[in-house]
Amino acid sequence: MTEAARKELPEAREVCPTTTRRLLAEGALLLDVREKDEVERVSFADCEVLNIPLSAFEQRWSEVPRNRDVVVASTNGEASLKATYFLMYEGYDRVTNMKQGVVRWIERGFPVIGEASVSSTAAEVGCGCGAASPKADARC
Fold it and tell me: How high is the pLDDT of residue 121?
């Protein structure tokens, strides 16, 4: 990327799955950027989901609505953070990344369709939501 094409972006907003559930109940859209095979194994349930795989994101990002809050999710929050910054670069200001992704969503017992298991390695991701103690962290 050339110097002329760079934009200074603020730090992306990030929320845990518990906060994501609240945002979805308030009308936010969940944008799942996992690949088709991942979504076929396990997908988010009981919420409106738009799936645009990260591999097709540069071609399809304009499908994401600008007129509502969007929470971007992936397996562990890394791919979704990339998509979040991409959308911010494109001028979206109502976009938030879901930290720890579907791994933490499943760990919290939130509804899914398909195989609701996580690997022990993936499940070791901490919340990072700012909770002061391990006991408080359990709420996320």
Answer: 31
In terms of DSSP bridges, do strands 49-51 and 29-32 run parallel, antiparallel, or are they unpaired?
parallel
Do 45 and 112 meet the contact criterion of CB atoms below 8 Å apart?
yes
pLDDT tens per residue, range 57-98: 999 999 999 999 999 999 999 999 999 999 999 999 999 999
pTM of the model: 0.81
- 3-state per-residue secondary structure call for the chain: CCHHHCCCCCCCCEECHHHHHHHHHCCCEEEECCCHHHHHHEEECCCCEEECCHHHHHHHHHHCCCCCCEEEECCCCHHHHHHHHHHHHCCCCCEEEECCHHHHHHHCCCCEEECCCCCHHHHCCCCCCCCCCHHHHCCC
Q: What structural domains does the chain harbor?
A: 8-137 (3.40.250.10)
The pair of structure tokens assigned to 15 is 């929320």
56 φ/ψ angles, rounded to the nearest 5 degrees: -115, 10
